[in-house]
Structures are given as structure tokens and as C-alpha cells.
Design goal:
176 residues; alpha+beta; Aminopeptidase; 7-stranded mixed β-sheet; 4 helices; 29% helix
């Protein structure tokens, strides 16, 4: 594998990010979106997360964006403010090269630095074995499966929930 550099995402990465995510929406079940968002929509989503100091990372290989990852609030109600949901997407040409793991590991570190205490993976489709194994290898535990909750490509899909503690997790009270 060529070397991979992980860095904060920049606005000029959005074209590649949009293409990677668009492919996942159009061809896969990792996302339950049915239509790929526009570049303008993806720009707005990225900026919203960055404005609130959530980590948003890209993996760069041979001068090109090979994948990206970000953390966002798990839920919007105030009691959830220390819990984030992770998202990791890798360009189809770069899958199975370890890029997802490098991104996820760095996302965990960056989320811990920001004081988050739990990370939740909401994995679309229980047949997404690669994503489930990626998260398991990164210390996540399966906490449940919501059966037949999404309908895409003419079939019902499950959602697998996985979780891992960040930093002190629930052992101590967080600092507001």
C-alpha cells in the first residue's frame, strides 16, 4: 500500500468527498439515503460539522482523497452532548487497503481530544461485514440490531449498532 496521510478536511476536498459518498449512496447500503446529495449539500454538511468543532478527516494517498471520516452528535438532545456517531467512507478503488481503519483510529483520537466520551457506529445493513469487522477491530462492541428498519434497493435492511468508550468513557463525569 502506498503511504496514507490523514489530515483535517478542507473545502477543496468536497468534490472527492461528494463522489465517494455518492457512490456509497447509489451502489451500497452503508447509507440509507436514496439519492446522492449534491456538492452544495455536502459542502453545507461539512461546514456545519466543522463550525461546531467536530473532527472531519480525509485520507490522502498519492495526492488524492482516498477516504474520509467524521464524527457528529449521536442525537441532538442535550444529554447526548458527549456521544458522537462516526461515519467512515472509502473510495471504492481504495477499499480493503486499511484506509478505513487508519481513518477510524484517528477519528477516535480526535474525538477524545474534544472531550467526547462515547462513539456509536450506526451501520446500515447487517450484511455490511467489512464495516462491522472494522469497528470490532477498533474496539467497538455490538450493542444491538434494529431489524428491517430501512427499505432500499427493493429489500428491508437492518441497522447494526456498535459502541466504544472514548477516553474515560463513563468512569468519570465529563467537563462541560
Amino acid at each position: 500500500m502506498t503511504s496514507v496521510a490523514i489530515r483535517p478536511a478542507r473545502p477543496d476536498d468536497i468534490e472527492s468527498i461528494t463522489a465517494i459518498y455518492g457512490h456509497a449512496v447509489t451502489h451500497g447500503t452503508a447509507s440509507f439515503e436514496l439519492e446522492a446529495p449534491t456538492q452544495a449539500e455536502m459542502t453545507q454538511r461539512m461546514q456545519s460539522l466543522m463550525d461546531r468543532n467536530f473532527p472531519y478527516l480525509v485520507a490522502e494517498s498519492d495526492g488524492a482523497v482516498a477516504g474520509y471520516a467524521y464524527a457528529a452528535l449521536y442525537r441532538t438532545r442535550p444529554a447526548y452532548r458527549f456521544s458522537v456517531e462516526d461515519s467512515v467512507y472509502v473510495d471504492p478503488k481504495a477499499q480493503r487497503l486499511g484506509i478505513g481503519r487508519i481513518l477510524l483510529d484517528r477519528l477516535v483520537v480526535e474525538s477524545e481530544k474534544r472531550g467526547f466520551r462515547q462513539m456509536i457506529a450506526v451501520i446500515g445493513d447487517s450484511s455490511q461485514i467489512a464495516s462491522i469487522e472494522l469497528h470490532r477491530a477498533a474496539g467497538f462492541e455490538t450493542i444491538g440490531t434494529i431489524r428491517n428498519v430501512g427499505f432500499k434497493f427493493g429489500r428491508w435492511l437492518d441497522t447494526v449498532l456498535m459502541q466504544r468508550a472514548l477516553g474515560d468513557g463513563a468512569r468519570t463525569k465529563p467537563k462541560d
